[in-house]
């Protein structure tokens, strides 16, 4: 699972684009995701009282942890979501998102037609009463704004508004943003406003507020890089700041996690250069260097590979230029592929000479980010975070997700994230299925488990585990379900990583490839050994089998009653009786490929996949 180490927030409300059925025929529908009864830490903001006054400059680029606005700058703003995922091409890491949902995953009004004021972002009071005669005409507020982005498009009557508080303690509307003013839905536009002398008092405040439908995560707006200071002019729109705008992408082609046994035979089929976006907020050419280091996720002092080290961005970034950087591929020879699992963290940072300005503005906070990957026992195309839910609203509707194997293997478990979608999906009935091919031929249905129900979830992005009998899969296979409800039933949908070509659905007896929705379903098939119980781990009962992979000789160490080696067709190749020491087996005459070893010990059966190399 990918985790944004630089900004590990608890996501509480996400957004949706709702596509209605066409002529009564059910289609794949994408919808909002809400948190399962998680409350945002609103008291943290409440404790920051309005009499806690700020001094100039005031700056926030939202590149921080927490999921909600910094209480050092903002008050009474618990419903605005700070996130890395919902804005498109922002100036820096992190944006503030406004919509029609509250901060704890709820709604403002159950009436689907209700429209009104929703989220607001309110600054602490700023003391502007001490400015000298040469400064009073040089106070300006600037920021970037975007409508829509990845979430739901605002309606024509929706808006984002900017307010200033005057000396009479009244809010004055300074500007109104609507969709007609937007260049495009993937562009952040910068604006700047003079703070007129009538606002230069000891408790000046500014506020952002959106008008939207009040029944969910509709009508979305985003702002970034808010800056209030003296000594500015209307043309002061450049900053000595070079920033990462989005975390690095995957290092495995289409996957955040890949089974080790699938990776080993041909790593080049999976490895790709990761990409990352950077942006020069200055209006002059700026030299930048970047570094990407792969560490052991659980031992940060252990560097596994240095992908780039002080690599020059060449040619240098021009003023206000954005660039996508290619990070070098991981060197697979530096990994211990005999391990069952390898968890990797990429630390990425730029060296640009960014500094702390005026003792307050730390331009370095957006220069570093991290992301996690895994070589383990499952496939994951998602990054572990559901921006949306995708599914069907039809009894007996079927949804399938495709996976392609490099080597034959045994699937014995599937994890699926069924998010809250404005309602709790728990209890919705379905039949889980694994297919060889998506046809009407019963022989192509490899596995079916009926009478299942969605389990309650207690944390955001929580997966439900479905245990299977050992199922032999080779080449292409599909996992999914047939729903036993006519209510909308959705799977977590990661909009940041596109695997939409893997999604198929069936509502009228014919399988249809998805062509409308871009993203990844949060469905993860697991292979090989089942996870050991705590009792087995505590007493270390599982025999040790090594080396694996092997070119011929393999050892089985420990107490066991019987050992049997099978090929993937179920044929018994080796079978031995009781042992209490180390048994050595010679597989040199066996063909290259995958074999299954079952070890019987203490009334338990341990299954190990053995990869035979040439």
Structure description:
With 614 residues, the protein is mostly beta strands. It folds into four domains: 39-239, Galactose-binding domain-like (Jelly Rolls, Sandwich), CATH 2.60.120; 251-376, Sandwich (Immunoglobulin-like), CATH 2.60.40.10; 392-527, Jelly Rolls, CATH 2.60.120; 540-612, Sandwich (Immunoglobulin-like), CATH 2.60.40. Helices cover 2% and strands 42% of the residues. It is built from three helices and 41 strands. The strands form ten sheets. Strands 2, 4, 5, 7, 10 and 12 form a six-stranded antiparallel sheet that branches. The protein has a six-stranded antiparallel sheet with strand order 27-26-29-24-31-32, with no helix packed on it. The chain has a five-stranded antiparallel sheet with strand order 3-6-11-8-9, with no helix packed on it. A hairpin with a 5-residue loop joins strand 37 (562-566) and strand 38 (572-576). It is globular and about 95 Å long. The relative contact order is 0.13.
Rg, Å, rounded:
28 Å
- Note the overall shape: globular
Report the sheet-strand fraction: 35-45%
- Number of discrete domains: 4
Please identify, by name, the CATH architecture of the largest domain.
Sandwich
What is CATH's topology name of the largest domain? Answer: Jelly Rolls
**Global mean pLDDT:** 85
**Helical residue percent band:** under 10%
SS field, number of helical segments = 3
Largest sheet: 6 strands, antiparallel
N- to C-terminal separation? 32 Å
Number of strands: 41
CATH superfamily of the largest domain: Galactose-binding domain-like
Low-confidence stretches: 1-24, 37-50, 530-540
Query: Which class of the largest domain in CATH terms?
Result: Mainly Beta
Structural class: mainly beta
